[in-house]
Amino acid sequence: MTLTRAHAIAVLASFAAVPSCAPRNAVAVGSKNFTESIVIAEIYAQALERAGLPVIRRLDLGSTQIAMAAMARGEIDIYPEYTGTALIDVLHHDPIPDPKASYAYVREVFARDYHIIWLARSPMNDSQGLATTAALAERYHLRTLSDLAPIASRLRLATIPEFITRPDGLPGLQRLYGGFKFDSVRSYDIALKYEALLEGDADVATAFTTDGAIAVDHLVVLDDNKHLWPVYNVAPLVREATLAREPAIARVLDAVAPSITDTVARTMNAQVESRDRDPADVAAEFLRGIA
């Protein structure tokens, strides 16, 4: 069975141990409690270590709120965050469609209000999406959500319950694109919607655009050509005091950022979730590839 980010919380807990003794002035790198966050945090940690900075890991902390609280208390110095998450969940701001404007806004407000610095964002965008098989995309000539909207009545959607009613879910698609009146809409556990798609019980499934299953199962994510969903570029958040103490952090992590793309993120997520690889090994392989 293909697994998603919902898998591996228990498996990855073993990578979250906090050392009882850390070097003086070590940089504490944290993460949230899902695969992608843990792998990207491990990339940051290893990149800093290769640059000669002492690092301690505090991974698999929990939600955005927990990670932000840990930053405020000085328990972690760095963690990977998403522009869309910061904008909507932390700042409670309406989505900003333009990725540059969204990044500029969160960077300004976080520096002013939280004394947290956003370093360079990666091109990777872990946003919402709709996915289908390559065969079905070819049969119906599907590339964008606009292509799908008028023919949805012939197709079956597999989704999670909240997508059916959320303003940025199915109602948002219908409002912005028109159409999207699927022949049937069935809700599944987050780990089972791809299985329904692959086993022929659905034609389209909701997705997060960097899910490992997209790479493993060669799925096609349709382009959100009218920009319903905000951009979720990932970037390192660093405490201002930490960056003042260790300015090399910016140089090191800014050099890594451009190489974390959608394709790379999907592949890394799949390596952990579908092949049970250690996130540290996946991160090391990524860094060797860009050296």
Distance between the termini: 34 Å
Quick check: average pLDDT?
91
The general outline is globular
CATH C-level class of the largest domain is Alpha Beta
Q: How much strand content do the residues show?
A: 15-25%
Distinct helical segment count:
15
Lateral strand order in the biggest sheet:
7-6-8-5-9
Spell out the CATH superfamily of the largest domain: Periplasmic binding protein-like II
| CATH topology assignment of the largest domain | D-Maltodextrin-Binding Protein, domain 2
| Radius of gyration from CA coordinates | 19 Å
The SSE string, one letter per element, is HEHEHEHHEEHHEHHEHEHEEHHHH
The low-pLDDT segments are: 1-20
Helix content: 40-55%
**Main pleated sheet:** 5 strands, mixed
In CATH terms, what is the architecture of the largest domain?
A: 3-Layer(aba) Sandwich
| Overall SS class | alpha/beta
Find the count of extended strands (DSSP E, 2+ residues).
10
Work out the count of structural domains. Answer: 2
Report on the architecture of this protein:
This protein is 44% helix and 15% strand. By secondary structure, the chain is α/β, with parallel strands linked by helices. It folds into 2 domains: 9-125 and 232-290, 3-Layer(aba) Sandwich (D-Maltodextrin-Binding Protein, domain 2); 128-221, 3-Layer(aba) Sandwich (D-Maltodextrin-Binding Protein, domain 2), CATH 3.40.190. The chain has a 5-stranded mixed sheet. Strand 1, helix 2 and strand 2 form a beta-alpha-beta unit. Mean pLDDT is 91; it is low at 1-20.
